[in-house]
Write a structure and sequence with these properties.
Layout: H1 3-16, H2 21-29, H3 32-38, H4 45-54, H5 58-74, E1 87-96, E2 105-107, E3 110-120, E4 125-133
Antiparallel strand pairs: 1-3, 2-3, 3-4
Helix pairs in contact: 1-2, 2-4
Length: 138
């Protein structure tokens, strides 16, 4: 499996709210004409699982950095003037299954991670994002 095929599978999973590898596989199998046009072909859950375990996430971090730089250069500026740079901070809980992610125990009944986002008001694009355990303060 190449990076593009992995990206198509994971982006599809994220955008369509898929819950498991089997669910991702069946969703992509039902749309073979679309995966063909994207150049990714058929995707098996075992192959996707191995790719997610073995392929480094550094590639996607670099890709995000390059896309972020491109967005930053083309983003509109705001009409307000501030003496210093203005950021907004937000954190959202991401519910997860305790059976799958036991390390993410939020309380006895729930598992969660927390997504922290910093919004740069110069271009209205995120300046940073971090994922922590759910109990971490904002």
């Amino acid at each position: 499996m190449n990076r593009w095929t992995q990206f198509v599978a994971m982006a599809t999973a994220q955008l369509t709210g898929r819950a498991s590898l089997r669910d991702i596989e069946s969703a992509l199998a039902s749309q073979k004409h679309l995966t063909y046009h994207l150049g990714s072909g058929s995707i098996k859950r075992t192959t996707l699982s191995r790719a997610n375990q073995n392929l480094s996430s550094g590639f996607y971090e670099e890709l995000f950095g390059k896309l972020y730089a491109r967005c930053q250069s083309g983003s509109p500026s705001h009409k307000f003037r501030f003496k210093k740079k203005l950021f907004s901070l937000d954190a959202s809980l991401l519910d997860v299954s305790l059976k799958v992610f036991p390390q993410a125990e939020y309380n006895k009944m729930k598992g969660a991670y927390k997504l922290h986002i910093g919004l740069d008001h110069d271009g209205l694009i995120p300046a940073f994002a971090a994922v922590t355990l759910g109990k971490t303060g904002d």
